[in-house]
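We were asked to recover a plausible sequence for a given structure. The inputs and outputs are reproduced exactly as logged, with field labels preserved.

PROBLEM: sequence recovery
POSITIONS: 184
GIVEN STRUCTURE:
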């Protein structure tokens, strides 16, 4: 039985953004957090597919990663005009300065994850249409290199870092952080 929504954060019209590497649990946490808070949930990758009628992998294969990043930025910019959302971003959404500026206007949770656990999760559910390879490196090497490159950006943007945990515990960490902000 789902829990009742918690009382809103003081600025309950501020969006909550979930950032972190692919397979870190952003979509899972985002849906659960939105339900608990009684807020709408938006998954930027799913919204891309819905709006464009193609997978991320199809666009990347045809036009490259830069084209996807531009499309992702446009979707984030549009989403950021709405208020009170819980938003799961793509792992690379933090790469563009304009995206970072938009994310910084909300509450940002960084979902931390061990590279080996990310590899396990991705191997268990490759979903290459939504999670195409980023480089020509081997799978595990790509995950480690990508995380090493992006983690400083994730940390700089984060209002709170959520350690790798199961879905229930991760939700409780997020709710506790929101409760602390409510007391500020």
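RECOVERED SEQUENCE:
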């Amino acid at each position: 039985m789902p829990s009742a929504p918690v009382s809103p954060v003081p600025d309950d019209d501020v969006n909550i953004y979930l950032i972190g590497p692919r397979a870190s649990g952003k979509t899972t946490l985002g849906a659960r957090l939105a339900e608990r808070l009684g807020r709408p949930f938006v998954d930027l990758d799913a919204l891309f597919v819905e709006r464009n009628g193609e997978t991320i992998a199809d666009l990347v294969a045809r036009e490259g990663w830069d084209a996807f990043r531009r499309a992702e930025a446009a979707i984030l910019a549009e989403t950021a005009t709405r208020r009170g959302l819980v938003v799961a971003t793509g792992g690379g959404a933090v790469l563009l300065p304009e995206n970072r500026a938009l994310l910084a206007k909300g509450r940002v949770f960084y979902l931390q994850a061990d590279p080996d656990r990310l590899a396990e999760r991705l191997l268990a559910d490759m979903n290459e249409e939504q999670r195409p390879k980023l480089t020509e490196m081997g799978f595990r090497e790509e995950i480690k290199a990508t995380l090493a490159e992006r983690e400083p950006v994730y940390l700089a943007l984060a209002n709170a870092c959520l350690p790798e945990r199961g879905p229930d515990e991760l939700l409780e960490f997020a709710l506790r952080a929101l409760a602390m902000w409510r007391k500020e």
